[in-house]
Design goal:
alpha+beta; 36% helix; rod-shaped; two-stranded antiparallel ribbon
Length: 269
């Protein structure tokens, strides 16, 4: 009896093995309980012969991020996406893209920033470089803004501002101040730093003495030259004013009248 049931058992087991190993072609999936195959639904695909009971989900190209469909999805192949011009892929399948730094995203498009504009982050619009009040420290690029100076730098090659003319009265007032300053500088003793009292001996600095002597002599010579020049200038200016005032007074005050003025004129000539 057992020998009769053994072939039946072997045939049943062999059928179960065949059914469990049933496969479906591309574009189909295996039904449950191995009841055959079924086509993949819309939005799903199977690109190879398979033993799976489910189909794969089709990839969706994100148009808002800059990804366009090159080939739509079918039951036997997945979607193929591609980034539009100016965009770079964010994923390996190009389903999402981004507008990289140095490019500006506007109205769904990505274009390179113009001159004096920049974009330092992805998917951001281009911005204009800032204007520096005190000059540019570091020049800006398409991915970075300019860096400005914090303070104004004075141009060492700029021509000096011309000084204003000094009147004789102002010059006369400045003479005592200049002489007082020069005298104070010459008479002020040079402070010598205290040396260590524990030192056995002191040494005199001959170079410092010569520098001090030369400085005092130069200041004295400068003061004398300034004084002589000012005295000469003031005497000449006052003599001209005196001559003008004498000839311009009434006859009763100067006595000789026009004869005196004529005589002074002849003497000058």
């Amino acid at each position: 009896m057992f020998l009769l049931k053994l072939p039946l058992f072997i045939l049943t087991l062999y059928g179960l093995i065949l059914n469990s190993a049933a496969s479906c072609p591309k574009g189909q999936r295996v039904l449950r309980k191995n009841q055959g195959c079924e086509d993949c639904k819309n939005g799903f695909f199977q690109e190879t012969v398979n033993y799976s009971q489910s189909c794969k989900v089709c990839t969706k190209c994100d148009k808002e991020s800059g990804s366009d469909v090159v080939r739509p999805c079918t039951t036997t192949s997945n979607t193929i996406c591609k980034c539009r011009k100016g965009f770079v892929p964010s994923d390996n399948d190009f389903s999402t893209c981004q507008c990289k730094a140095g490019f500006g995203k506007k109205s769904g498009e990505c274009t390179e920033c113009e001159d004096k504009h920049f974009s330092k982050s992805i998917n951001s619009p281009c911005q204009k470089h800032k204007e520096c009040k005190y000059g540019v420290n570091i020049t800006g690029t398409k991915t970075s803004d300019v860096i400005c100076n914090n303070v104004k730098h004075t141009d060492a090659n700029a021509p000096p501002t011309p000084g204003r003319a000094v009147s004789p009265d102002q010059l006369r007032d400045r003479v005592p101040k200049l002489l007082t300053t020069a005298a104070t500088t010459m008479t002020t003793p040079r402070r010598i730093p205290h040396s260590d009292t524990s030192s056995p001996s002191r040494t005199t600095d001959p170079i410092g003495f010569l520098v001090t002597f030369a400085t005092v002599g130069l200041l004295m010579l400068t003061a004398v030259i300034i004084k002589l020049y000012i005295i000469f200038y003031l005497e000449k200016h006052e003599s001209g004013q005196k001559h003008e005032s004498t000839c311009g007074r009434p006859v009763e005050e100067i006595g000789g009248g026009s004869e005196v003025c004529l005589k002074l004129t002849l003497e000058e000539n």
